[in-house]
User: Fold these one by one.
Assistant:
Number 1:
Amino acid sequence: MKYLTLAEILQPCVGQNWAVGAYDTCNLEITRAIVEASAADQAPAIIMIYPHHTPQEEWPTLLRIIEMEVERTRIPAALVLDHAKTLDQIEAALELGFSGVMIDASQAPLEQNITLTRQAVELAHACGASVEAELGHVGQGDDLVSGDQYKAHLTRVDEARRFVAETGVDALAVSIGTLHGLYRGKPQLDFERIAQLRAACPIPLVLHGGSDTPDQDLRRAIEIGIDKINIWTDVRIPFLRALKQALGGPIEKTEVNEAFEAARAAGSAVIRQKNQLLGSAGKATRYR
Ligand SMILES: [Zn+2]
């Protein structure tokens, strides 16, 4: 199975006003939702496994599922480990054939983040895979804070320039006002900072916390310079809502496959909307 590396899948969209959707999966149904939506849209897809959702011992099984689905549909795809915290996780992923890994030392001091990221880059590049790192910290929507406290977590442009040069990282996740999960208030994206980071960093920029962010904000972020947008909650909620609805009748008469099919269709529908919004729909031909 040949995946595109994270660097390869992002390369065609840099400076082109579109971004690749990066979707987490943890099972067969969500994997199919991602792959079928991307095949229908002729869109590239970054398929991600998040260690917090899928324990390491389950990665090989999930990988087989992803591999078979991607082979069946022949979409341009990268397989990425999302938010790895340790080099052990990175090594395990590389051994299994992931084409990209994210090392997240965003809560560590700068020097430590640089050191750990550089080590991840050495390991991954030796295997022909790419690395994404995070500078500044993208928190959780539940923690939405305002004023100086929130600004303290944003990515500093001078640090980003140094970080990219010293680590050799392939893509940089930046903190510019989005948060993971659902927002408690309205997100305030710092578009000026995206423009400055774009000018300072010669590599693709990544936006975490793409879910629950207004469409026009995502579009503007892409036009200024974001190349990869991570989405989980916006798939998770419609998926679970459809599943819950499918389970609403008499349970004795409910078919398991039909309930999951409804959930999968809901997940797929939202991924198709995202592919349109991000502008990745129709871009599969750019990889041939
Ligand atoms: Zn994230």
Note: The chain is about 45% helix and 15% strand.
Number 2:
Amino acid sequence: MIVHCCMDVRGALKMTQRQLGAMFRHSDGRRLSADRARDVLLDHVAAGHEVIPLGPVCQGFDYKTGCPGHETEPQA
Ligand SMILES: [Zn+2]
């Protein structure tokens, strides 16, 4: 069973500018500025999202409860 990490959107909004600036990256590895990161988080709040995935959205991800967990194939 795999459960992916997710982050509480409101909790993230309480972080300092310095923490926010270190938290998010574009897919190409560039850092998001703290102001831009805050904008992204506010967009999630506006959309009713309570948690966001750390990394790509996985199958069945729920923006209120997070990753549902994934069964893993038993090793043959
Ligand atoms: Zn997952």
Note: The longest strand covers residues 6-8.
